Predict the structure of Amine oxidase.
Amino acid sequence: VFKVVWHVKIYELVLPDKMTRQSVLFKKEIDTSLIGLACSYHRWANWEFHVGFDVRAGTVISLASIHDADAGARRRVLYRGFVSEVFVPYMDPVEEWYYRTFLDAGEYGLGLWAFPLQPGADCPANAAYLDGYYAGQDGKPVENKNMICVFERYAGDVAWRHTEAGFPDRLITEVRPDVSLVVRMVVSCGNYDYTGLGVQDQRLHQIHGMNMIMINLSLPMQIESTEGQKQSNSIDALQVSLTGLLEVKGTAYTHADQITEDAHGTLVAENILAVYHDHYVTYHLDLDVDGTNNSFVKNTIATKRNEAGTPRRSYWTVRREVAETEADAQVDVNAAPADLLVVNPNKRTRMGNEVGYRVVPGGATAASVLDDDDYPQRRASYCKKQVRVTPYSKAEKWAPGLYADQSTGDDGLAAWSERDRGIRNEDIVLWYTVGIHHIPYQDDFPVMPTVSGGFELRPANFFERNPLLTTRPPGLDQPPLVNCSCTGDSR
């Protein structure tokens, strides 16, 4: 259960300028009512973050920071994160179908197609709900009730554990449960339903740091330590979940044995073909890892022959590459194994390591296989690589360009990257594309079971140690209420 501790007028809570990010002001008007409120600024465990709404992107998470008890300070992680585009090209080239290559955010608006969540079904019983607002066609504000839900998730996972069996007279086991905070929105754009951050769930996990954002935004939970301090969590997952109705076409076929040529899809019922297609969900993540100026690093695994005279013949080591320009930071995550990091070269741990966050692919790593001269590929040519990094520019928010409808690809992420600007020790933006090649099956018809994909941002030398070491074992004086608060207009 959430409790509101600060009341903030929505019209006063304007995202601060890039250079004055700490200038957000709040009115301290105490409201102890339990949350069923339109909230905007949230505190959960050691996390603080702002939840916003955009008619094109849907949910926007910004100003995410975490309190580091060891450092005695609040440390920035994410300035702004949102879904920049959802590209869905269908693979039937005939006259009636070739144009079905959709840019859902730019052409339709993810926030415009977000509908009220169903309590107990879209979100669990412990969820609190937030409303969304946008300008209608007549310029008047439109209220969308229960557009976003926020809840703690206890999935039965383990945050950390160890059993020590080296003592002759006893067995020592320590286990800590994993708890996360989820910010969820569902978008029903045409026949597909997307669950997550705008199209996503974002999840914060239980680490003295921040795991990444998924289309389900989950934030790992912080639990009070024996010293009364809260552990920080990591933004653990940026995950998108797909369900809804398959896009189908009529056909004369009634049995698979009748198909003698490329039908561009799967026969899922008599006279019904489900057409092959892709889903590419591109995230815009303006990371500020412990400060504005960051660098992008690839730690590539390299195999070496052993020349030390021992029986081992080979081993692997790490080749560190710091990206100097945008061309160096275009990555196919399915290629050579590597850790991808955003680091702050100006901040180091006591051991001398640069503080950072690591990008961890979590499945759904497909890249576009269309020809470069195909018009849908020109519109979304950025889908050839899952990872790109650009210097921050307030004009570069939307991967296919500002005007996606009938675009030709001359203004978008791929075109911007061709400038090959410097990105070392700069204010940079990480773009990550979750990709799914969807070959339909009969089990997907008529309503498709949920398929998910995403990635994580996990701390990489961000902390001096594992911040969860001070968490209490389960059942020992845990607080009766959820460790979270938020601010916003009351209803």
Remarks:
- The chain is about 5% helix and 45% strand.
